[in-house]
Design brief:
By secondary structure, the chain is α+β, with helices and mostly antiparallel strands. The protein has a single domain, classed as q2cbj1_9rhob like domain (Jelly Rolls), CATH 2.60.120. The chain is built from six helices and twelve strands. The strands form three sheets. The chain has a six-stranded antiparallel sheet with strand order 1-8-5-10-2-12. The protein has a four-stranded antiparallel sheet with strand order 3-9-6-7, with no helix packed on it.
């Protein structure tokens, strides 16, 4: 199956800053991933020193299989080229009937890196709809460069520092990124996006994967590590190792090793 972006899809991504829906895995595969998540004892996950949801491919083989899935890598290669690394893969579980939300922001506000040859892939493990808080995009907003984000301490804002550019956003132009289980979207690090509360009675679960071109270098901040997933690596950052088994001692050590430098900054640069 050819899974690279078509010419029209590449033009859409370049012009609007996003493209969706793209097919990654079957609904059955997505359901199995959710079953894996539910099979882990909450007590065991709570014992992790650092958040298990961050860089989850270091702990779980099934997440590693997702971030290295050929269909996803083919689509990402269409945008970033053949040499690809993964910076993070974070599990987002938005519980039902909650008021928590993600404010309007740009992913690039987290990262001290250049060039910004980065894309975020968001894989839906459950259906993502306006009612359960799917992402919303502002088409073309990536063309305006990095905006100054205002920080807040709003308890219901999921972002670590409540950063927002909501005062700059024309919400009437927003596009809802509706996805079925197993589908994914891609968006630019400069794209303005947000997501609302989950007003349904079921969780909304997805995984956000940050892919980098191998040419991206870190400007400042705690040292970043990456996972080489395709092509060649020029040695610009230390490389991580895949997990041998889910939550094995080796996998836990690897996860602890690479997250430890970022604890002081609340993992905002990952």
């Amino acid at each position: 199956m050819i899974s690279k972006l078509s010419q029209d899809q590449r033009v859409h991504y370049s012009r609007n800053g996003f493209v969706f829906p793209l097919k990654a895995i079957t609904v059955e595969h997505a359901n199995r991933c959710n079953d894996y998540l539910q099979s882990y004892a909450a007590e065991e996950l709570a014992q992790r020193t650092y958040p298990w949801q961050y860089e989850s491919y270091l702990l779980f083989t099934w997440v590693y299989d997702l971030v290295t899935h050929p269909r996803i890598l083919d689509a990402v290669e269409s945008v970033l080229g053949p040499d690809l690394r993964v910076l993070s893969a974070d599990i987002w579980d938005k519980p039902p009937s909650k008021t928590r939300y993600i404010s309007w922001h740009q992913d690039a506000s987290y990262w001290l890196m250049k060039p910004l040859e980065i894309t975020t892939v968001w894989i839906a493990l459950t259906q993502a709809t306006p009612k359960n808080g799917c992402m919303q995009f502002i088409p073309g907003s990536h063309m305006n460069g990095l905006q100054v984000h205002v920080k807040s301490d709003a308890d219901e804002n999921i972002l670590s520092k409540g950063q927002s550019i909501g005062h700059l956003i024309d919400k009437d132009t927003a596009v809802c990124c509706e996805l079925k289980p197993g589908e994914f979207s891609m968006h630019s690090p400069l794209l303005a996006h947000a997501s609302g509360p989950n007003h349904t009675f079921a969780p909304r679960i997805g995984i956000a994967i940050r892919y980098l071109s191998a040419s991206v270098t870190q400007i400042d901040g705690p040292p970043l590590s990456c996972l080489l997933v395709r092509g060649n690596d020029p040695g610009l950052c230390p490389l991580e190792n895949r997990p041998d088994q889910d939550l094995s001692d080796r996998a836990k050590r690897e996860h602890h090793k690479w997250l430890k430098p970022h604890a002081a900054t609340q993992f905002v640069c990952m």
